Amino acid sequence: MTQRRMPSGQGPSRRSSSNAGRASGRSAVARSSAREAVVATTPRSANRPAAARRTGAGATAAARRTAAPQPRRLTGRATVLVAVLIALALAYTYPIRVYLNQQSDIAEMESAQAVQREKIKELQDQAALWKDPNYIKTQARSRFFMVLPGEELLILLSDPDGAARDAGLPPPGATPPEPDPWYDTLWSSIGAANAGAAK
Number of folded domains in the chain? Predict the structure, then answer.
């Protein structure tokens, strides 16, 4: 390559920009051919994606296509665990229901036993009273009108309902009958006047 000299006779001039562009283009071509040679000599890996194999090892990160991370869905283990939990819940519902029913039955039986115990206690108290001779005498007088020898029995008859019935009055505890409505009274008086006029 010949050097150009300037008209002033000075040393070699700077390369023009076109020459610099050609030189840089040549070096880029040389670099890309060297890269292709390296890619051709490296064995293809099955683990690398096809885009990375095509572009080579020195490809920039901007050229790679990245996928957004997908949210993890239920895995097989999680699905099996959920199924086992549901099966256990369904398996335990019937025994729990039986247990709760038994507890309610036990509570009802205990309350019934408490009522029976109270009744038994009352009957025991009454049985203890019948062991007292004075209580027996009192009950014989009130229930059977019995008296001891030498005593006179006086029975007071109190029958207010019978006395009122004999007098033609309503019993004292009964409510008086309601009077007839005015229109019934009016109709009966018209009927009686009509019957009197017909005679």
Answer: 1
Report whether 129 contacts 139 (CB < 8 A): no
pLDDT tens readout for residues 178-193: 878 888 888 888 888 8
pTM of the model: 0.35
Q: Other C-beta atoms within 10 Å of 199: how many?
A: 4
Tell me how far apart the alpha carbons of residues 140 and 157 are, in angstroms, rounded to a whole number. Answer: 19
- Residue 17 in any domain: the answer is no
Which pLDDT belongs to residue 26? 57
The token pair that represents 154 in the structure block: 């006086």
pLDDT at 3 over 80: no
Q: Is the pLDDT of residue 56 over 80?
A: no
- Interatomic CA distance for residues 167 and 155, integer angstroms: 23
| Highest-scoring range by mean pLDDT, 58-72, 99-113, 129-143 | 99-113
The tokens describing 160, both together, are: 């207010």
Residue 176 lies in a domain: no
Host domain of residue 119: 78-146
Is residue 123, in this structure, part of any structural domain at all?
yes
State the amino acid at position 167 in one-letter form.
Answer: A
- What confidence tier does 36 reach under pLDDT thresholds 50, 70, 90? low
Contacts of 82 (CB under 8 A, 6+ apart): 74
Task: Round the CA-based radius of gyration of the chain to a whole number and report it.
Answer: 62
150: left (phi over 0), alpha (psi -120 to 50) or beta: left
- Tell me if 55 is assigned to some domain: no
